[in-house]
């Protein structure tokens, strides 16, 4: 009887998998038939990326190597349906989902992708991915979520295209997200070069390692901005992207249980055009301008006067630090700290490091009820004070206040497709109902909690809770402090009888003056597997 049940479970799983693969092939064939037309008509920025990926793949793959191509090739398909009541889809049903979400009530999507991962044990390796989605009640009906090719030689790596990435120091499932990058917005197509994994410094006997990257890319939300913005409000097009970071790790876990990590990450928006009312501002994007954002410096004579006197482009970044203690019995306790900045005065601590994200992550590996716990305190309220004065010959003093986090005078701020690229608790422009692409409340203080565990073998839960107080901006403060609360309760079921399947049910609720009252749920079904 036991053998019969096991065989029956196996047959059921095989039937499900064969049926699902047939559906997946139909979806991929349909997406393939429409992809070139859609890219040519609506996604002009993706043309260069798609060509680079195609030709890069041809160069990377040897002739007569179909077996090598399919080796390690996996597929993933997913569908999600959300139903809500109130003002919007609840906050934690949309935030930190790599932009594949919608604040509009009652939405859904169907997603399918194929991937090949890097083989880190080999000196030379390559990877690629294509991840496409069709959606209902989203900012766009067809989404090129990921389309990339990666190449690795020894410790060096190159990545070309759109690829989902998370912040370096934050748990992607439990954290509210980093201050510079969080995984809240759609991936930005880019060419990224660097050392992606920690590499030991020679001569340190494993006690010091480093990693880092340099990237240039392009924002793809031109069409969304034109559709969203109200007449007379600011929007941009053809804006370029730059990021870089350098991290150092000190410690050797095999010999001592404390590991210190720290580093600097920076990002910038530059080039493109801005439209403010009837005025068009052309920002240069020549080779010299790529160097001007790499080493932040003043613009040349063909930039607006403010960019010449200050720094060319929209620059921001954060200092990030963590200390991990590997306790006995595989416990880990990791406090971490991020200091955000948008100018030199904050970058080098001239006015103190009052604005920050300070958190702690604790893992309990043998506790099925609580496997991981995260607490974070977030503050963006100070911004070096309410006074700004740029030095003049008559009054040479400099007061570098009112930093106006995530916003900028020329660009539409640190957002992509309306979703903030930084911490999502600073509410994204997509929530604005007046057609203004701006962060209306970047002065905020809050607390965030995240808990997850596996109470039984096939079941995982996750709980998020965030509470914030919001002051608006220095230029347009709220008359009264607006309080906000957002919560999520989620169950993920991964039946061992159905290999590669998981089913997730999520409930979200919002309360407070920032987003109003909303409540809703989401059901997600995912299938993963290997293509043989």
Summarize this entry quickly.
The chain is an alpha+beta fold and 532 residues long. The chain is built from seven helices and 25 strands.
Written overview of the protein:
The protein has an 18-stranded antiparallel β-barrel. A three-stranded antiparallel beta sheet has the order 8-11-12. A two-stranded antiparallel sheet has the order 17-18. It has a single domain (2-530), classed as Porin. The chain is an alpha+beta fold. Helix content is 16%, strand content 43%. The longest helix is centred in the first third of the chain and has 41 residues, at 2-42. The protein has helices at 2-42, 46-60, 66-70, 222-228, 287-294, 305-309, 344-347; strands spanning 73-86, 107-116, 124-136, 142-153, 156-162, 190-200, 208-218, 235-237, 240-250, 258-270, 273-276, 279-282, 314-326, 332-341, 356-363, 372-379, 388-389, 399-400, 415-416, 419-420, 444-456, 459-472, 477-493, 501-512, 518-530. A hairpin with a 7-residue loop joins strand 2 and strand 3 (124-136). InterPro entries: Wzi_sf. It comes from Parabacteroides goldsteinii dnLKV18. This is Capsule assembly protein Wzi.
């Amino acid at each position: 009887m036991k053998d019969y049940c096991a065989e029956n479970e196996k047959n059921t799983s095989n039937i499900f998998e064969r049926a699902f693969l047939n559906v997946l092939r139909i979806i991929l064939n349909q997406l393939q038939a429409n992809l070139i037309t859609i890219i040519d008509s609506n996604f002009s920025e993706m043309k260069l990326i798609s060509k680079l990926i195609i030709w890069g793949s041809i160069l990377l793959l040897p002739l007569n190597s179909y077996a090598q191509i399919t080796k390690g090739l996996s597929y993933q398909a997913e569908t999600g349906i959300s139903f809500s009541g109130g003002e919007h889809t609840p906050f934690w049903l949309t935030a930190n989902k790599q932009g594949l979400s919608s604040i509009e009530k009652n939405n859904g999507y169907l997603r399918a992708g194929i991937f090949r991962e890097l083989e880190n044990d080999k000196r030379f390796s390559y990877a690629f991915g294509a991840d496409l989605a069709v959606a209902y009640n989203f900012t766009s009906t067809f989404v090129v979520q990921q389309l990339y090719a990666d190449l690795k030689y020894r410790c060096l790596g190159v990545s070309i295209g759109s690829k989902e990435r998370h912040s370096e120091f934050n748990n992607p499932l439990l954290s509210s997200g980093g201050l510079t990058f969080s995984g809240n917005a759609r991936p930005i197509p880019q060419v990224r070069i660097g050392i992606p994994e920690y590499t030991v410094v020679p001569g340190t006997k494993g006690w010091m390692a480093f990693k880092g990257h340099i990237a240039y890319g392009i924002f793809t939300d031109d069409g969304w901005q034109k559709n969203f913005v109200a007449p007379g409000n600011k929007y941009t097009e053809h804006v370029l992207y730059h990021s870089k970071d350098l991290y150092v790790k000190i410690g050797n876990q095999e010999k001592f249980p404390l590991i210190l990590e720290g580093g600097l990450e920076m990002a910038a928006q530059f080039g493109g055009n801005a439209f403010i009312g009837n005025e068009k501002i052309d920002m240069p994007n020549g080779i010299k301008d790529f160097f001007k954002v790499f080493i932040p410096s003043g613009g040349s004579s063909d930039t607006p006067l403010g960019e010449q006197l200050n720094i060319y482009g929209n620059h921001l970044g954060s200092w990030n630090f963590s200390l991990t203690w590997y306790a006995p019995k595989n416990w880990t306790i990791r406090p971490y700290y991020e200091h955000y900045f948008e100018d030199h005065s904050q970058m080098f601590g001239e006015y103190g490091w009052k604005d920050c994200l300070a958190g702690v992550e604790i893992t309990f590996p043998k506790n099925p009820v609580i496997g991981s716990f995260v607490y974070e305190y977030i503050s963006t309220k100070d911004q070096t004070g309410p006074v700004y004065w740029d030095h003049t010959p008559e009054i040479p003093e400099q007061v570098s206040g009112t930093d106006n986090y995530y916003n900028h005078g020329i660009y539409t701020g640190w957002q992509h497709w309306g979703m903030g690229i930084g911490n999502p608790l600073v509410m994204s422009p997509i929530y604005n109902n007046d057609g203004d692409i701006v962060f209306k409340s970047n002065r905020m203080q809050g607390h965030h909690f995240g808990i997850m565990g596996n109470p039984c073998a096939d079941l995982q839960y996750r709980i998020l809770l965030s509470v914030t107080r919001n002051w608006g901006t220095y230029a347009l403060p709220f008359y009264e402090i607006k309080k906000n609360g957002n919560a999520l309760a989620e169950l993920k079921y991964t039946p061992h009888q159905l290999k590669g399947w998981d089913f997730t049910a999520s409930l979200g609720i919002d309360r407070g003056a920032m987003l109003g009252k909303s409540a809703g749920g989401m059901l997600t079904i995912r299938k993963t597997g290997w293509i043989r």
